[in-house]
Amino acid sequence: MQIKIILIGFLIGSSYLIGEYIYKMYVSRHRQINDLIRVFEIIRMDLSFGMYTLEEIFDRISEKHPNVYSRFFKSIANDLKSDNLETLDGILNDNIDILNKDTYLASKETDEIKKLISTLGKSDVGSQQRMIDLTIDNFKKHTTETKEDISKKGMLYKKLVTFVGIGICIVLF
Question: Are 155 and 23 in contact (CB under 8 A)?
Answer without folding.
Answer: yes
